[in-house]
């Protein structure tokens, strides 16, 4: 079915793509920006051997045209590759692409390279692996005979705005880049006054009115490159950006959305039969909500075809039901329609999976959203949130996991602003690890039970449903082999899935041939390293220490690990505890030794307090992370020489910190428990 549908679309878009690309003179309304051919290359160099001399983007909202002009110079041989091709993307369902100039400027001579027969088109599907087809066509032109020192100038325009916007336009201009730019400008023309917002810039526009048309211009010269910092939150905008919109308020966007998302036709017989079955089978409202969600999530597959109007307008519920596939909008409208038919209040809700927490701070726009979910209000007045595009979700109607989208625009006529998407889940993963040591210096048996909750349970459930048991077993074995050395399985991994509580448990048993490693500090010692892999696998030390942007943290996230080490010999080890109560994470560790049964227990707890660390708090956060990094490991060190006749039990040697004190211990077959020494990535064994 999928191939039968996609192939005709591919052929249609290919035909449209070739028929809607032409060569024309530049539009008369544009501002003719000039470049400086003699601009000096910045002292700190350029990126990719290319110096951008000019970039301008100009939009005429009344004419529905977008104009782009770019001028770049190859200042190194590597820059030839970067400036030798031109690519322009457009949607053939409502846009026409017009090339105006492609010139090579060499020693002041302008060489025209633009020919219709050299323009090629192809579909550009960057998200096809996720079953998302946006219909975009790329027109590209390979420029012949470009040499070092040449300047390449090109300009093109796109005619046509998506009609689904109903005459309301919004866009964004970016005023800097990761490479220096000699001159950059943005122009917006409209008969109406525009709303705009500046991000990471204080550059106010020059505003003029000519012949009843408002002209807003932002221009900068000698623009330095910006350095993008690692692990910056997706919602943080790093570039100097201008947001422009014709919408006056979020109420206007809600009105637009309600008009686009509303369908008056009655439910088809097929859809009504499904709703009736859900209503008759489930007497409680909550059970009906849960059953309808499961149907839309699992019985209607995800497929997004976002060309033209389809990028914003959902298909009618009856069509989605008939074809049994749809995108986030389709599935949300279908789910809402099913609940509404059962007299349950439900509304499609627009969200942005990246911008999330800054959505309410942005100017109103219908283009700022990239996803659709559903808000439900039950008979008790409680607000519930659901994402119909997710699959393999478990839990009752009131504890289904919802990702941290933070804010959404509910398409409810009674709403005038963003609604807060609250969620109480922690995404807890809790691990219980038991080591049964054969004898000092030998192997051990390892039993592991890992309990997954909330979104983590959904994730693991999907893994086991979409992969064979053999593949999963091999991946798990590879992890323990990398961590502890030669490993063999004592039993296949088994799962316990409590769908009602949305809890998922994984049970594993292994034989570790030898978990001891030679010590580089003392050739007469061997070490056993215990680390809370449940924590260390999700924690990373920042490598970029001077920051001007926030540092992203996984959120919500809670990790617990309980380690039990059943020792073959008696040792004495005092209890230890460490707590780090950072503003951004909380960490707690404790250890205890039961001398009667020779059992050593280690308990770890970690929780992120927020989804990011602000730049102002990064130094304190890093200091706390260094402390955690230095204290998260637990070592058992054994003397393996056997030269002493002293019995290890008689000496009752206890806990020591570090290696310096080892010289004070009488030689013998002793076991030293060394707590909180070093991190797994920096351990002294190498």
TrEMBL record:
Domain of life: Bacteria
Pfam families according to UniProt: DUF3857 (PF12969), Transglut_core (PF01841)
UniProt keyword list: Membrane, Signal, Transmembrane, Transmembrane helix
Keyword tRNA processing: no
Region forming the signal peptide: 1-19
Chain ranges of the DUF3857 domain: 64-226
Xref: InterPro entries: DUF3857 (IPR024618), Papain-like_cys_pep_sf (IPR038765), Transglutaminase-like (IPR002931)
Residue ranges of the TM segments: 656-678
Domain Transglutaminase-like: 274-365
Protein name stated in the entry: DUF3857 domain-containing protein
